[in-house]
Predict the structure.
Amino acid sequence: MSETTLPYTIRSRITCPHCWHEYSPEESLWIASDHPNLFGDVKLGDQQMVRFLPSRFTADGEAVDPEGQRTSRLACPSCHLEVARPLYQIAPVFFSILGAPASGKSYFLASMTWQMRQLLPSKFGVVMTDTDPVANARLHEYEEQQFLNPNPDALVSIAKTQLDGDLYDRVNMGTHVVSYPRPFLFNLQPMAKHPNHEKSSLVSRVMCLYDNAGEHFLPGSDSSTAPVTRHLALSRVLFFLFDPTQDARFRRACQGKTKDPQMQNRSERLARESVTRQDTILVEAIQRVRRHAGLREDQLHQRPLVIVVTKWDSWKELLPDVSHEPPYTNKSSTPIQFLDNQRIAEVSTKVGDLLRQYTPEIVASAEGFTKHVLFVPVSATGHPPESDPQTGGFGVRPRDMNPYWVEVPMLYALNKWCSGLIGGVEKTK
Ligand SMILES: Nc1nc2c(ncn2[C@@H]2O[C@H](COP(=O)(O)OP(=O)(O)OP(=O)(O)O)[C@@H](O)[C@H]2O)c(=O)[nH]1
Ligand SMILES: [Mg+2]
Ligand SMILES: [Zn+2]
């Protein structure tokens, strides 16, 4: 494939968002049209169209498949999974979201993407679109259930993320089958009112996120046949979700100060297990990153780590003077808003001090890993869950959904470590 076969500037290196293989665009495979003779791919099985290296192209840059039909869909030469076209034009940025089972990762993702879709165009002059709507379908389901539900009084819940199944793609590598987690992909591009609109090709990004099951971060659970957390190696920023409701010390401190059933006393055995678990997960993730980066145990990493403290609604009484008003501010001369970084830093200091008091081991592990640690409290629901008598689990009613600060960790990461899209103000007072 030469540059003239596609109607836009092509990046010289592409990173596959499924298997993280890096390749040059001319190595790409193409996905055959839906001709019945072309069903079946060696790596992906009978239900998928064959992947091929074309020898013929149409005048407008599409490939011609072995049955003479045109196709524009591209695939990774290593795993054969489809690589959406914007990844050939726009630089990707990978973010990893990690945390213990039930720490709130899936709710966080759904509320964050929902909030970002509303806020980015209206307040920050950035459009956020699905790079590949099919790949993002699961996240759409979550968002629709929580925020667009025609029955706002129904008790709904996001299912626990499975360790395998339809959130994963299975690829036959010849000697073994590998299971890759499906990425969620979003285009972020400056709008006409954005100061960097003219530099769109430089500052735009494809944001790549993954929803792992908490168990994937336990020692021994990432293998060559299920490389479920290899995105940690590429990740620009790590988001570690810490859940105070799983910590006996936080639960004790919140007694009488919350209505959240997750803060009720759990059995001593459960409490002990989950305390070790959250710390173990952070330490394990840090070790995986160190291994991939070739760092010694005592070397600090340059990579930022955001400790996202989830379920803020359930422990907010521990910091009664921290307001959850959005940390955005205006500059007189521009129509777009900026992050109030001073306020975010002040809140980070307070939340960091709180964690130092109750869970010093989390803070010590984080600060031993990198100089860039930020603590951000978030609430994905803004409301405690209720027990669902039908399932025995927890659910929320869509009418109660009132997330706060849930998009702040990502906006801050984009501002600080992926410059040009989201503006920030360091001193507001
Ligand atoms: N109070 C409160 N509860 C929350 C919030 N976000 C999630 N929860 C509850 O936390 C529980 C677990 O949330 P999930 O998002 O499914 O957790 P997860 O980290 O994806 O868990 P795994 O998929 O098992 O790894 C659910 O029962 C939610 O009701 C929040 O912002 N506030
Ligand atoms: Mg989940
Ligand atoms: Zn691939």
In short: Residues 223 and 425 are 43 Å apart (CA to CA). The first strand starts at residue 14 and ends at 15. Confidence is low (pLDDT under 50) at residues 1-7.
